[in-house]
Write a structure and sequence with these properties.
Strand content: 5-15%
Structural class: alpha/beta
Strand order of the largest sheet: 1-4-5-3-6-11-2-12
Distance between the termini: 55 Å
Radius of gyration: 27 Å
Shape: globular
Largest sheet: 8 strands, mixed
Number of helices: 30
Helix content: 40-55%
Length: 771
């Protein structure tokens, strides 16, 4: 059941959206080219087209102004709440957008209080609300802390629910099977983890694995006790009535406010595009927090992938189920072996990719295309044969029905990589059957958000096919001119043990905006959406052509609490001696700051090099502060060590540039080695650059520079998290101040005091540290 907070309700407006004819001109408020935020109270409300609409808007203004006032309910009931004009102005803009059923793209600086600024108007407005985040961390925070606190302070009853992807919920069936199979556990660590999970299964009400702190999110055991779309029995499961996934979705359908994530929202969007019943409940408004991640998540999630991991798992599961349930029906070893062999051949055909930048290769640049084609055809032959046999015995056990569907889906995805000029083996029979959601028409795509946080298996099972994806691959010579392939990019990437074939759309703008229900309001917010005052890079990627935009600056006193340091005389970032010079410049700052630093690198190779060089300095100087490196522990453990206040120094890359909140003296130095331009070896980026050039655009200013500006703002945002915080932001890339485009980048950063003199910075740190 959804959670409910109760109390004497404030006045709540009806959930129906204003008639489309009552909507103001899209240009009301700040525009993408304006540096001013959406106008405050007097100007935020558009001139009403009729008396009733005007009264509704005026009433909304009064309620918001009273709620966020210095002596209002939030100030009286929320400890530490302080009225901020930026928060009130943003809340008014949100209220107007909800009334209009329009779109607001809102950039709110750190400390603005944007969470309450969008939640409060939504609660006052009423109706069904979806709040979507990019990360599970923020999703849990909003559901467990922010929403309950705000609902209590407003004294407004509201049923709230949390909905995550399938891989985030403990599965009773797979836990039972894992416990019963002595071969299931691969290590002593998994044995220990399973013990914790057994106890957790007996006490949990939700089955949300995030509640079990003793087992890390990325532990291998979770793949054995959670379900995927491939192995969920749906209504055929004996545990269906007690299924945590089913219960979570039922609570979401009944709740007034549902906290989801971007991947789940995109799964719902894709289902609507295919004419299938929606996964998520219909909502009057959708609020996207961490909205800057939407284009990236959409590109990944609305694409397709198929991997050797899937091939091997299908072979293994077919062998085990066949021997257990229909041993006499077929030679299961002989059926599974060709698919295993095909996976090995595909791995060998792609072995040279391991030596390529990023261990990735664009499809057109495959080192050994003939071997690749042969392995794909062999995999199709093996999947087709296996699929026919498991389909023939599917009446023997529900697992065979699932295996038949998996074989058919694997065949279909591999077929997209088969050369069109060559004949392919016959496909296995299409098998339709119940999924976990068929009883209420919701589809089975509840696999939306655990992909890159846990296993490749979940990633492969989570993605949906975007309508319009090419069905067969064109011959390499014709691929570039194919209309089917023109809007897609294909690449192959390798890991230690597996190969993944990826396809993604070059643009998600049409897919993202096409299936939005009429009158549904959208609020998209983040601390980093604009390049200075220009939102066009973000809105263009998502097809939000008529969105209103607004910016609200942070209330923090940046000129007095922080300093931006770009070292004078440091080598250019492409010079071999750069990394050593970066560390040499950084060491006196770490010493003056007594550790307490986050060092952000743009590549994993740089992380290893910087950590190695700093380790030598720490050993030579006898520094006892913890020196941490990304990858040596889980992300959660590294951040917890950084937060403890023991003056830790953490060296990290991409995953540490955002989503990190370490306030106070535990983090007072953030050092960035190079401007975060996306790596040119990324196949999606490379394809978008080529597409821009093909139509006469300038990819640097159209794509690469805006993306770097937003990433740099994210990294800089790790420094000042509270009003009392202070610190130094070091950017060691001299292009920030010496290149003409650098001005666009540093002007988008917080307005810190600036210096290029290391001694000034050391003095600032020593003064702040009281030495």
């Amino acid at each position: 059941m959804p959670e409910r907070a109760s109390g004497a309700p404030l006045e709540r407006q009806a959930g129906d959206s204003a008639d489309p004819a009552d909507r103001p001109d899209p240009g009301v408020g700040a525009t993408p080219s304006s540096s001013a935020p959406v106008s405050p109270v007097a100007d935020t409300v558009s001139p009403p087209d009729d008396e009733e609409a005007g009264e509704r808007r005026a009433a909304a203004v009064r309620r918001i102004a009273a709620l966020f006032a210095t002596d209002g309910p939030l100030a009286q009931r929320l400890p530490g709440f302080r009225a901020r004009s930026q928060q009130t102005e943003m809340a008014l803009a949100v209220a107007e957008t909800l009334a209009d059923g329009g779109t607001l793209v809102a950039e709110a600086g750190t400390g603005t209080g944007k969470t309450y600024a969008y939640l409060a108007p939504a609660l006052l407005r009423g109706g069904k609300v979806l709040v979507s985040t990019a990360t599970k961390t923020l999703q849990d925070q909003i559901f467990s802390r922010d929403l309950p606190q705000l609902v209590a302070a407003m004294q407004m009853p509201a049923a709230i629910a949390l909905l995550k992807g399938r891989g985030n919920y403990l599965c009773h069936l797979h836990l039972e099977r894992t416990e019963a199979d002595p071969r299931a556990l691969a290590s002593r660590e998994e044995v220990v983890h399973l013990g914790h999970i057994r106890k957790f299964a007996k006490r949990t009400r939700t089955g949300d694995i995030a509640e079990l702190a003793e087992v890390p999110d990325n532990a291998s055991i979770w793949g054995k006790v959670t379900s995927t779309r491939d192995n969920c029995l749906g209504t055929e499961c004996g545990f269906y009535r007690d299924c945590h996934v089913v219960k979570a979705r039922k609570a979401a359908m009944e709740a007034e406010v549902v906290v989801v994530n971007h991947a789940l929202f995109l799964a719902d969007l894709a289902l609507r595009g295919e004419g299938i019943a929606e996964l998520l409940p219909r909502a009057d408004c959708v609020i996207f927090d961490e909205a800057h991640q939407l284009p990236t998540v959409a590109t990944r999630f609305l694409g397709e992938s198929v991997s050797t991991h899937q091939m091997l798992e299908l072979a293994r599961d077919s062998l085990n189920t066949g021997l257990a349930q229909a041993r006499e029906s077929a030679d299961w070893v002989a059926l599974a072996q060709p698919l295993e062999q095909a996976a090995r051949e595909l791995r060998l055909a792609c072995a040279a990719i391991e030596r390529m930048p990023g261990q990735k290769s664009a499809f057109e640049a495959l080192p050994d295309p003939e071997a690749f084609d042969a392995a794909i055809l062999a995999a199709l032959e093996a999947a087709g044969t296996l699929g026919k046999v498991v389909a023939a015995v599917r009446e023997r056990h529900p697992d065979f029905e699932l295996l038949a569907r998996r074989a058919a889906e694997l065949f279909g995805r591999l077929l997209r990589w088969a050369p069109e000029a060559q004949p392919v083996p016959p496909a296995p029979p299409a098998v339709e059957g119940p999924s976990a959601w068929d009883d209420d028409g919701a589809g089975d795509a509840l696999d939306g958000d655990s992909a890159d946080e846990r296993t490749a298996a979940h990633h492969d099972a989570e993605q949906l096919s975007l309508p319009g994806a090419p069905v067969r691959r064109k011959p390499r010579a014709a691929a570039a001119d194919s209309e089917d392939d023109a809007d897609w990019v294909r690449w192959i990437e390798t890991t230690t043990h597996h190969v993944r074939l990826q396809a993604a759309p070059l643009s998600v703008a049409k897919a993202f905006s096409r299936h939005r229900p009429e009158g549904q309001a959208w609020i998209l917010t983040s601390a980093t959406l604009a390049v200075r005052t220009d939102f066009s890079h973000f809105t263009r990627q998502l097809g939000l052509w008529e969105a209103r935009t607004g910016q609200w600056e942070s209330p923090f006193d940046y000129p007095n609490c922080g300093m931006l340091f770009v070292p004078q005389g440091i080598p250019a970032p492409d010079r071999p001696e750069f990394t050593q010079a970066f560390v040499d410049t950084l060491v006196p700052l770490i010493e003056a700051n007594q550790g307490s630093a986050l060092i952000l690198c743009t590549t994993l190779r740089a992380v290893d090099t910087v950590h190695r060089l700093l380790s030598a300095v720490f050993a030579e100087r006898g520094w006892k502060w913890p020196l941490l490196r990304q990858g040596e522990r889980t992300r959660r453990e590294l951040l917890e060590t950084l937060r403890t206040g023991n003056h830790a120094v953490l060296v990290g890359s991409a995953s540490f540039w955002e989503g990190i909140d370490v306030p106070g003296d535990a983090l007072t130095l953030v050092a960035i080695d190079k401007l975060p331009f996306a790596p040119p070896d990324d196949p999606v980026i490379d394809a978008r650059i080529k597409e821009s050039r093909k139509r006469g655009g300038n990819p640097f200013f159209e794509f690469q520079l805006p993306q770097a500006a937003i990433a740099l703002k994210q990294g800089a945002g790790r420094l000042i998290r509270r009003e009392s915080d202070w610190g130094v932001l070091m950017v060691a890339d001299r292009r920030l101040v010496e290149k003409p485009y650098g001005k666009l980048l540093w002007r988008g950063l917080p307005p810190f005091a600036r210096s290029r003199n290391r001694e000034d910075v050391v003095a600032f740190l020593r003064e702040r540290r009281g030495r």
